[in-house]
Amino acid sequence: MTFNAIKQLLYGLYLTNSFGYKLSKTNDSMEKKRLRLGYSQAQLDTLNITVKIENEEKLPKEGQYLVIINHRSIIDPPIVEVALKKTNIFGPWISKKELYNSFFFGLFVRNAGSILLDREKSQMSGFFADIKTAVKRGESIFIFPEGTRNKTSESLTPFKEGSRIIALKNRLPILPLYIKTHAGEVLKNALEDSSLKQEITLVIGDIIEYKDKTNLALSYKERFSL
């Protein structure tokens, strides 16, 4: 690991925990959105990464959605937060148990507005109840439907069924976002040389109605010509 990578990781740890502490002090949704955006912008700024939005005219300014995003990198959530900064769209991210217990991300994830997904549990009733509570508060739900980071050469890996169930159970229209640039490769480059200016493109897709019976992965691929 290079000296620059170590420096970036240490600063990332500082940002994650300092913002995690600030987030623990508020229950206000819009304040949490502001803090999450502040954290995300700071992380991308230090990595010298900017976000470009394609089809920005398709991005709603408000409303409740199941926001689905492809997943290649640990910086995907900050990319999405920055892309949505001019909107009032806010809500919890679906997060794996590993993140809740992570030394690096744990404090932030637990306080930023997240819903724990523990696939080892035999019953998922608590998980769906937490989602319903968030929706009743007027919030959206953010999820990576692939379930885990895509480390293959394919543009997309198979979707888990849970995303469709969440949309149906809560009558949430689906807002598809596609991180067009390989964010994992961009992050690797940034850790090697933070003076390198890089841009990540995120594409906004047409809304998918929750009643649409088309396979969700197929609908997603069609919108982004994958």
Structure description:
The chain has 226 residues and is an alpha/beta fold. It has one domain (3-223): Glycerol-3-phosphate (1)-acyltransferase, CATH 3.40.1130. The chain has nine helices and seven strands, in the order H-H-E-E-H-E-H-H-E-H-E-H-E-H-E-H. It has a five-stranded mixed β-sheet with strand order 1-7-6-2-5, sandwiched between helices. Strands 3-4 form a two-stranded parallel ribbon. Helix 1 (3-23) packs parallel to helix 5 (106-112) and helix 2 (29-46) packs across helix 3. The chain is globular and about 50 Å long. The mean pLDDT is 93.
Question: How are the elements arranged and paired?
Answer:
Elements: H1 3-23, H2 29-46, E1 49-54, E2 66-69, H3 76-83, E3 93-96, H4 97-100, H5 106-112, E4 114-117, H6 125-136, E5 141-143, H7 162-170, E6 174-179, H8 183-192, E7 198-204, H9 216-223
Parallel strand pairs: 1-7, 2-5, 2-6, 3-4
Antiparallel strand pairs: 6-7
What would CATH call the class? Alpha Beta
Count of individual domains:
1
The CATH topology label is Glycerol-3-phosphate (1)-acyltransferase
Q: Give the SSE order as H and E letters.
A: HHEEHEHHEHEHEHEH
Q: Give the overall shape.
A: globular
Short description:
The protein has 226 residues and is an alpha/beta fold. Helices cover 43% and strands 15% of the residues.
